[in-house]
Amino acid sequence: MLEIIKLSKSFGSKNILDRVSLTVSDHEIVSVIGMSGTGKSVLLKTIIGLLVPDQGQIILDDQDITDYSEQQYNQHVRPIMSMVFQEGALWDSMTVGQNIDLALKIQKHLTEEERHKRIHDSLEMVGLPPIQDQYPEELSGGMVKRVAIARAIATQPKYLLYDEPTTGLDPVLSNMINDLIVDLNNRLGTTSLIISHDIPGVERISNRIAMLYQGQIVHSCNAKDLWRQDHEVFNQFIHGKAEIK
Ligand SMILES: Nc1ncnc2c1ncn2[C@@H]1O[C@H](COP(=O)(O)OP(=O)(O)O)[C@@H](O)[C@H]1O
Ligand SMILES: [Mg+2]
Fold first, then answer.
1. pLDDT of 177 strictly over 70
2. Nearest CA to ligand 1 atom 9
3. Residue 216, SS3?
4. Predicted pLDDT of residue 2
5. Ordered structural domains, the chain, with CATH
6. Whose CA is nearest to atom 8 of ligand 1?
């Protein structure tokens, strides 16, 4: 279980996260929605230890990881938690295989042969042919997203954080990525936290949906009850209304 308790983060005088609390239970898919620039990416980067929170706690499997050092994150958190970055974040100078191998090399117990198999299997799992020798610039946008997911799942993590996995993709590819997220949850038993603007997509694949607004989780609900909420800001957002500031 991932528990985020009253997490705050500012940059200079800008309070981005203001006592954010959110729990993701084992095997759940929880989506966080919210307008651009509200701190959704900051939230995920703080959870995975790329940003240091000012206040609050992050509890992972009953362990308080909030004050973990970089070394502790590498040792105890990143082997069980992966993030799919918004733009894929692949290294252009490395092949697909080398990109995926970077994540695997953190796990010192894997032999080279085992790492090769993990690279092959993770590409297969996201529906890609064995393209480990190609470079990111040779791939389409949808393929880059899938390679980013393959890299994230290669370590067989218990937790997956997805930052806008379908943004910029056409509806067919978006559906494919959404189906893949559910499939991975079912097949690998992962627990997923997704950031997304794709309201029909999150409605279809999430268990719960939470809205980040002005630094706080202002509302959350079961996905199946998405259209029956009694919360003005939440309803305006999911209906795409412009009144909210
Ligand atoms: N490393 C950083 N340093 C300073 N400001 C940042 C940093 N990362 C994000 N921000 C600011 O935090 C705010 C929220 O950003 P972000 O989490 O990327 O929003 P989004 O909800 O669109 O993902 C933005 O105003 C952004 O400029
Ligand atoms: Mg973002």
1. yes
2. 42
3. strand
4. 98
5. 1-80+158-170+188-236 (3.40.50.300), 89-156 (no CATH)
6. 42
As residues whose CB is below 5 A from the ion ligand 2, the structure lists 40-41
User: Which amino acid appears at position 161 of this protein?
Assistant: L
Please name which of 97, 193, 106 lies closest in space to residue 150, comparing C-alpha atoms: 97
Q: What is the CA(162)–ligand 2 centre distance, in A?
A: 10
The number of residues in the chain equals 245
Ligand nearest to the CA of 213: 1
User: Which residues have a Cβ under 8 Å from the Cβ of 155 and sit 6 or more positions away?
Assistant: 78, 79, 82, 103, 104, 106, 107, 118
Query: Could you tell me the distance, in angstroms and rounded to a whole number, from the CA of residue 37 to the centre of ligand 2?
Result: 7
Q: Is the CB of 38 under 6 A from ligand 1?
A: yes
Residue 198 contacts by C-beta under 8 Å, 6 or more apart in sequence? 166, 167, 174, 178
| 241 CA distance to ligand 1 middle (Å) | 23
The CB of 16 under 6 Å from ligand 1? The reply is yes
Check: pTM over 0.90? Answer yes or no.
yes
| Structure confidence by residue, pLDDT tens digits, 208-224 | 999 999 999 999 999 99
Token pair, residue 227, equals: 């259209």
Q: Quick one: which of 183, 194, 127 has its CA closest to 160?
A: 194
Give yes or no for a contact between 129 and 121, defined as CB atoms under 8 angstroms apart: no
Instruction: Determine the distance separating the centroid of ligand 2 and the alpha carbon of 44, expressed in angstroms.
Output: 9
Parallel/antiparallel/unpaired status of strands 208-213 and 216-222: antiparallel
